[in-house]
Fold these 3 entries.
Entry 1:
Amino acid sequence: MNLESPHKFRGLVGQAHRVAEHFFRPISRKYDKAEHEYPKELDMLAALLDGMNAGSPDAVGAGSASKRGAARDEAPGVRNGGNMSALLGVMELCWGDVGLLLAMPRQGLGNAAIAAVANDEQLQRFGGQWAAMAITEPGCGSDSAAIRTTATKDGDHYILNGEKIFVTSGERASAVVVWATLDKGLGRAAIKSFVVEHGTPGMTVTRLEKKLGIKASDTASISFNDCRVPASNLLGNPEIDVQKGFAGVMETFDNTRPLVAGMAIGVAKAALDRTRQLLKKHCAMDYKKPLLSVSHAEATLYRLEAEWEAARLLTMKAAWMADNKMPNSKEASMAKAKAGRVANEVTLKCVELAGVMGYSEDELLEKWARDSKILDIFEGTQQIQLLIVARRLLGKSSSELK
Ligand SMILES: Cc1cc2nc3c(=O)[nH]c(=O)nc-3n(C[C@H](O)[C@H](O)[C@H](O)COP(=O)(O)OP(=O)(O)OC[C@H]3O[C@@H](n4cnc5c(N)ncnc54)[C@H](O)[C@@H]3O)c2cc1C
């Protein structure tokens, strides 16, 4: 087992770190203060990223973390592909700023969904889009099987009706991947996802949220009133396969949950690095000393660092499994549960360890504590990830273990 970051991605990691340090950090506070203002500086960066990705076998970004992004190398042994490169990039970029990463054009979770389930023709059509992901509704959050937005077939179109809330990049993205049911009576199997481009008649952004953290990222409510989309915008299989149930649309999470865990690892590393610097003024930080003989502050930092490392390794394993075409739903949920929890604890403890510096807006520590909370909520909360892990371990279905 090799627990190092893959050698071939070191260049990418270095580049992502420099972007985080020189591009994100200097504007971090500015967009924390200016909620709902688009960080226009990102346009240039997104164009650069598009250039880096064009023709690169190991692209970075949400769209490369998918089944298609799995390593192409068929030789036996360790294989690392798009899932690992996207994860490593995300970790570094979120060391810079989670909100700004989420606000990056063409890096939406809808892009990952398109990459995971679109056919070749759809990939061609939607490849250049910036796609948000709309699952949550006023009456449905964790229990995504309770979706009420409907999609009714009408000739070679579907007509969408319903309301989506808390859609990350829902206003700024050029398209939204919308989950809707073809038949409420048929339960999970009837839930399909549709790409709806902004400007489609019947689709309206109705509200922007004011939030605790990730203020650089817009979070929108969107209503669909007789919104007509081409039938060819349905992602995946249009048939209702009761045997396969929810599996089709849920597959996306195997690729996206490790990425959200990676965001948590990035922001937690930022807090640890800064706190270590601040503590160095007062503590020896001699890692060779036994834990019992160091100060409480040092001992706390060492424990947090160990937790962080455990979260990082679990997350890399989940992404590595995806690259090696192994079923990874359990590991993706384990990684997200661990990393989300660790990031929340680390960032808040770092506020505490840094004393007044931790609480002051002169430092970014308080911001990171606010930003990290969402990483334990979206793409499935802490409790839901634990539920999924328990179901997988015990061999229970979602109706047997709720
Ligand atoms: C900033 C932000 C951005 C978001 N972006 C998106 C997005 O882009 N797209 C999108 O579709 N959604 C998005 N969401 C919504 C997010 O995915 C949901 O908030 C999340 O899934 C939880 O749903 P809920 O808020 O309705 O909570 P609920 O499902 O009502 O849960 C409330 C609490 O109960 C717990 N709980 C629920 N069910 C169980 C159970 N069976 N066992 C144990 N505990 C349980 C939950 O863990 C949680 O702690 C976003 C949310 C926020 C805040």
Note: The beta strands are 131-134, 150-154, 157-168, 175-181, 191-197, 203-208, 219-230, 234-235.
Entry 2:
Amino acid sequence: MTRLKRHIERHAVSRIGWLRAAVLGANDGIVSTGSLIVGIAASGAAKEQVLLAGVAALAAGAMSMAAGEYVSVSSQSDTEKADLARETRELAEQPELEREELAGIYERRGLDRRLALKVADQLMVSDALGAHARDELGISEISTARPLQAAFASAATFSIGAAAPLLSVLLAPSAMLAASVALTSLLCLAVLGGLGALAGGAKPARSIVRVTFWGAFAMALTAGVGLLFGTSI
Ligand SMILES: [Zn+2]
């Protein structure tokens, strides 16, 4: 393995985009479905009711994730397209101004004026729009946003996460529903947090503590609400 290749592989940043989205989706599925189930189980509801509520929570959560992701990725992609269209127009109408603008950016990054103009000229000969997109607009890969794909992926990862507490409802004895769902959810959160940190090149311990703490907090809160309503109704 060459030194350069090793160096590139040490940087996990490029993998973090989709991985982070997948881990977040599964986390959401576990926390929201798990705490809803714990709350309903704590109110003293029967196993069938708990299961029904859990399935409804999975479906509702997955739809909400998909819709949210679709809207957010679409609007990001719209903004990028509009920016690129304006930049294309400006490059055609006032190339000299655009050359100055690009050179100015390189000067502020530390190049002297002559070198900055030279860099701007050479980059604009090979790919003017690409150079302006990267260095002026901060768009590194043109039009990579895919709203439908993003929506489907987050609905899928949410559902996978939500399946863990649901499975635990199916398998656990009725008397211990809330406790076993809470334990299963926390265990899955810890494993997921650890794997996510490892894959991203970070230390797993901190990530595991963080994710299980907030998961436990959410479930304790809904358990409290469930107990309160269970005794008052
Ligand atoms: Zn420009």
Note: The chain has a mean pLDDT of 88.
Entry 3:
Amino acid sequence: METETKRLAKINGYSNEMKEQPNPVHQPESAPVLVNRHHPWTESPEDTESRLAPVSTFADIQALDADIRLERTCLERLDALLDAVGGKNGIVVVSGYRDLAEQTEIYYSSLRENGAAYTAKFVALPGCSEHHTGLAVDVGSAAGGLDFIAPEFPDDGACGAFKARAAEFGFVQRYKAHKEYLTGISCEPWHFRYVGAPHAAIMEERDLCLEEYVEILRQERAKAGHGEASYGN
Ligand SMILES: [Zn+2]
């Protein structure tokens, strides 16, 4: 077993260039970036990809594909969360960062295989997927079928513990059934978004989806006289 220090050192090895180019996306003092059908991800793939690391950085994380990449802090916190809930054997990373070409392929293959209604519920339009940020991860139960679009992620066992402790490590279940009218996406128990622990704690406590939360931050910032906040898109 690696020590926590060694793991962090691994990530920090990848992070050297990041220190010179601070990344506003996951800093607690900035609003988490909002990506949805009304807010496409507009950053260049080169910039986004410079912040990614492969999940195989942590040899004991199970993944559907060793090439899956996540933003480095998101990956490091995912590793810590999986350790904390004893999820390294029972939980598999099914999807992470996707570029525009990959989301386009997923979108149209789902249209062909699953039809328009299903696709509209579970697959974001190319350019409008949180997976473009590297800050979203789909996880599935190793005991389930590991369906690529909708993996099983039950409420019990390691998956239940993962969900219960996700906010502590900075993750939120992004798409909940009762927020569908705001997110435009159906309930996805498997899709977690990294926003950082301070934001995740407030979102959890006040039952806010990201659309609601960034709007509250924007209003508070405007009230405080900082003008319009920028969310990076
Ligand atoms: Zn997802």
Note: Residues 95, 131, 136, 138, 191 surround zinc ion (CB under 6 Å).
